[in-house]
């Protein structure tokens, strides 16, 4: 049985990927420092799959702890999610972001080199494209100067991977995510934003739950059909499955270069107002929202051309936007229930 290390494996995308890895028969070991999640997610994963992954609470910024882990653990691949990911916050804390998102990447790659380990999957983002000149966005679209420190850490991360895979016997794939949303069918794992949500879907579900008074729609004066910004919202389970496809590509040596990258989206763009309307329809409720000024740094539109990912990874999305928005709401309602029961 192949053993896979998942860093950030108790996070939103990480936990969903651990479930899919276990479903595919991989043995999973998780490293997470619990800075942006809860240890309860480990139990939830075990509830879904019947298997409790090996878990190590390690902060990857502690080089000694990383070295100790790899002196005691041999793995057949690494899927690296652990990183800070708040675009706005990254502008106020650049050094924290460079240290956590890039310093830890270097430590992991050094250990792979030292122990002759291979097969590295990197969590990247469509943010690297900025506002692409052409839509849908293909992998040939140029990487533009990052508009945020967060986006810059993804661009530099890919550069580090390219150089490391060229210099050492290392094969790596960067998955450039579009907008991950939704929750597992079991409603046992989902998005757990700490504090005021930055992302659209958790803010919508918390507004519907009455936790937030109303949703602010950041601008309706974009050059889009209804004036609100367009994004490619991908169900987190489909995104998790893309990681398995990429990992298998490396394990079975089907990669065509030592460093590759793929756009992982649905291929369809949805505006903020379309998301609101779809959320209201599938969940049979009315959402409080108002139109306000644009948010600094936001782009007009981004959605993926999925041709290359479909072909090279043998992967495509299977879940609909409606399923994602319904599962997001069910997950939110479950959080409320849990909190009421704890009171
Ligand atoms: C989506 C749309 C907002 C909140 C970022 C990162 C990306 C990834 C996902 C980490 C935009 C609008 C949002 C709100 C709104 N990061 N919006 N009201 O900015 O596309 O992507 O998060 O995994 O790498 O770049 O996602 O969910 O913040 O915004 O109107 O309260 O919703 O303006 O058009 P974004 P988002």
Computed structural class: alpha/beta
The mean pLDDT is 97
**Level-1 CATH class name of the largest domain:** Alpha Beta
Strand residue percentage: 15-25%
Which ligands does the model contain, each kind named once? UDP-4-deoxy-4-formamido-beta-L-arabinopyranose
Spell out the helices and strands N to C. Answer: EHEHEHEHHEHEEHEEEHEEHEHH
CATH superfamily heading of the largest domain: NAD(P)-binding Rossmann-like Domain
Q: Would you report the number of β strands?
A: 13
Radius of gyration: 19 Å
As a percent range, the share of helical residues equals 40-55%
Strand order of the largest sheet: 3-2-1-4-5-6-11
What would you call the shape?
globular
Secondary structure tally, helices: 11
Largest sheet: 7 strands, parallel
Question: CATH topology of the largest domain, anyone?
Answer: Rossmann fold
Ends apart, CA distance between termini: 43 Å
Number of domains: 2
Which CATH architecture of the largest domain? Answer: 3-Layer(aba) Sandwich
Spans of at least 5 consecutive residues whose pLDDT stays below 50 are: none
Q: Which helices and strands appear, and what pairs or packs with what?
A:
Blueprint: E1 3-7, H1 12-23, E2 27-31, H2 40-49, E3 54-56, H3 63-72, E4 77-80, H4 87-92, H5 94-114, E5 120-125, H6 149-167, E6 172-177, E7 179-181, H7 200-208, E8 215-218, E9 230-231, E10 233-235, H8 236-251, E11 259-264, E12 270-271, H9 272-283, E13 289-292, H10 307-313, H11 321-342
Parallel strand pairs: 1-2, 1-4, 2-3, 4-5, 5-6, 6-11, 7-10, 8-13
Antiparallel strand pairs: 9-12
Helix pairs in contact: 1-2, 1-8, 3-5, 5-6, 7-11, 9-11
